[in-house]
Amino acid sequence: QVQPVESGGGLVQAGGSLRLSCVASRRIFSLNPMGWYRQASGKQRELVASITSGGYTNYADTVKGRFTISRDNAKNTMYLQMNSLKPEDTAVYYCYACYWGQGTQVTVSS
After folding, report:
1. In the chain, what's the furthest Cα-to-Cα distance?
2. CA distance 34 to 26
């Protein structure tokens, strides 16, 4: 398997939380930085957060303090913990690990 696989999206009320997961192949996971992107309807895809193989993280200003990216090397899995969700966080969220995942829908109701 080359394409990473996301899970964990859904519908949540504003102020709620969701955790996204992304499973990638062991070879890709151990050697490369990974990231979460999102694309809202009618907008371009944008970086949400990224993490290097050494654990260094970077966040978009719009999610700093609310979202946390992490990785579990033993499980070849990357996570995005999303707290204090806002309606403007509604988008399809994509995992990137050399290849794009299929995306998972996150919808935040007001």
Report:
1. 41
2. 13
pLDDT band for position 103 (cuts 50, 70, 90)? very high
3-state SS of the chain? CCCCEEECCEEEECCCCEEEEEECCHHHHHHCCEEEEEECCCCCCEEEEEECCCCCEEECCCCCCCEEEEEEHHHCEEEEEECCCCHHHCEEEEEEECEECCCEEEEEEC
Please report which confidence band the pLDDT of residue 1 belongs to, taking 50, 70 and 90 as the band edges.
low
- Region of residue 42 (phi > 0: left; psi between -120 and 50: alpha; otherwise: beta): left
Nearest to 104 by CA among 2, 17, 12, 21: 21
